[in-house]
Amino acid sequence: MDRPAPRIHRPPRVGLLRIALLIACPLLVALNFLHHRSTELGDPLGVHVDTGLVLAAIALKWFVLVGSVMVLRSWLEAIQGRPKQATFEVLAMGLPLVLLTLVLAVTRVHWAYRLSNGSEKYHSFVSADDTFAVQDANYSRVSWLWQHGVTQIAESLLVFLVISALAMLGVFLGRRAWWFPVVALPGILGVYSLLFGLFVIDFDVFHGDIWSGAVLLDLLCPPYVEPYSLIASLYYATFAASLAWVTICRGRLRSAQIEGAPGAIDS
């Protein structure tokens, strides 16, 4: 009796888009940091170089956003009818974003003033160093929220609220829920901002938030807006890289399960 032909092991197929996202995400953040540093130093390499950094950052931003939506569609299809898988992958994507939020919270004193400019003011919440406190009528309230940890918790929970809502739609609707981040995300951030009032638009824009206001305002101004595009790029890149990695790992696991199915003979 002839023996079955030996199984040939092939590396799991990984979408080129996912690999491209993993490469583009750190590049997007790097370009934004370089632009910001160039602006701080007065464009030492010339305005044309700085303009090139901005244009490259805009192109990468939209590649990451559009690419994320495309990968998101396959993820939503994969979790349809699978709530346990969705829960695990929500944690896998949400925890890096929460960690980023907490890092920004801990280091706020170091970046808040540097990211402020002629019209956008980030509070450092260190009264001796917060030069914008006396200008913001909302300062005493947002300062209290920050000092008591309310803002840090709210900004972290918001991450899981957005991803969990997306996953829930994916479980019930699958690929058809791809429109959620495109249409609903600005609305969710807008409602959240109105409820908590962590940033106010007066004669200037005063910020007591960590990321919600930056991402909202960056989405409302598609090309580029200082300093929000820098903060937003950190979240775009972290989400896109986490999403790409989760889908890559799921594809590898599925390939391993197929190869290890009963009746398969390994070489």
Automatic annotation (TrEMBL):
The chain crosses the membrane at residues 16-34, 54-76, 88-111, 153-173, 178-201, 228-248. Keywords: Membrane, Transmembrane, Transmembrane helix. This is Uncharacterized protein.
